[in-house]
């Protein structure tokens, strides 16, 4: 009887171990699937958003002309990536380099019908105006907040900003690098080097233009115990390595976009 009980205990222990292992494997596979799905979604969305950065075509017939379009066009084309002090109404708003491993922030100018939240700022479709979109990470979420560029420049009435919209949950870090052209009067729009946000002010003073953006996102799954994995490190672009915990599955997603509107502007400025 004791031998039978011992064999039964061994078999039961084995079954429990198989069950626990299978459950852990299924949880990990589900976490991987979710993170990859989220990553594909946000990669495609950001590519679509960033391709329009710096866009302004005065020849379009559907631009609201209640302001000077020549001045507005010059502002958007010359400053596709906004910096602090660019806007008269909100001088602190601009692209920022995060301190240490903190996430970067991206503020961009473009001509569009609506901002990243769908706000048209009182204009009926298909009328377009200068739009400003602010991308940032807060409380583990990638968010965007839109503004009327005309309001920020002090040209129109008090258009309050759109409500923040969450683009993706589970984002632990966003790091950004900017591809710079040479002097816009001499360069053909090719990237001569990539820099982080701390170099943008000096680049503008040197008459250089942002013609590409590289962006890296660290996305995590909901809590899951990964007992068999040691703590690992991951590097986003040229930033210092980040140490990952064993309570989540992590994956890095990269987006690289050439700002075709800025490239065309650089090319025309060199003529």
Automatic annotation (TrEMBL):
<dbReference type="GO" id="GO:0043683">
    <property type="term" value="P:type IV pilus assembly"/>
</dbReference>
<dbReference type="Pfam" id="PF16074">
    <property type="entry name" value="PilW"/>
</dbReference>
<protein>
    <recommendedName>
        <fullName>Pilin</fullName>
    </recommendedName>
</protein>
<dbReference type="InterPro" id="IPR032092">
    <property type="entry name" value="PilW"/>
</dbReference>
């Amino acid at each position: 009887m004791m031998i039978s009980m011992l064999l039964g205990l061994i078999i039961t222990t084995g079954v429990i171990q198989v069950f626990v292992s299978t459950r852990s494997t299924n949880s990990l596979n589900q976490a991987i699937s979710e993170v990859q799905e989220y990553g594909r979604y946000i990669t495609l969305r950001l590519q679509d958003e960033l391709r329009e950065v710096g866009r302004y075509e005065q020849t379009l017939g559907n631009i609201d002309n209640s302001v000077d379009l020549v001045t507005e066009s010059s502002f958007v084309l010359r400053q596709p990536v906004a910096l602090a002090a660019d806007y008269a109404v909100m001088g602190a708003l601009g692209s920022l380099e995060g301190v240490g491993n903190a996430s970067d922030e991206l503020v961009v100018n473009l001509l569009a019908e609506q901002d990243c939240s769908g706000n048209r700022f009182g204009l009926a479709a298909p009328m377009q105006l200068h739009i400003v979109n602010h991308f940032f990470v807060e409380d583990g979420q990638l968010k965007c907040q839109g503004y009327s560029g005309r309001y920020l420049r002090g040209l129109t009435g008090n258009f309050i900003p759109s409500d923040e919209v969450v683009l993706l949950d589970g984002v632990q870090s966003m790091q950004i690098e900017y591809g710079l052209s040479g002097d816009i009067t001499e360069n053909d729009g090719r990237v001569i080097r990539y820099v982080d946000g701390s170099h943008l002010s000096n680049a503008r003073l040197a008459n250089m233009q942002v013609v590409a953006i590289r962006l890296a996102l660290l996305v995590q799954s909901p809590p899951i115990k990964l007992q068999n994995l040691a703590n690992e490190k991951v590097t986003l672009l040229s930033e210092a390595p980040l140490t990952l915990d064993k309570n989540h599955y992590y994956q890095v997603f990269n987006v690289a976009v050439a700002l075709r509107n800025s490239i065309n502007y650089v090319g025309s400025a060199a003529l």
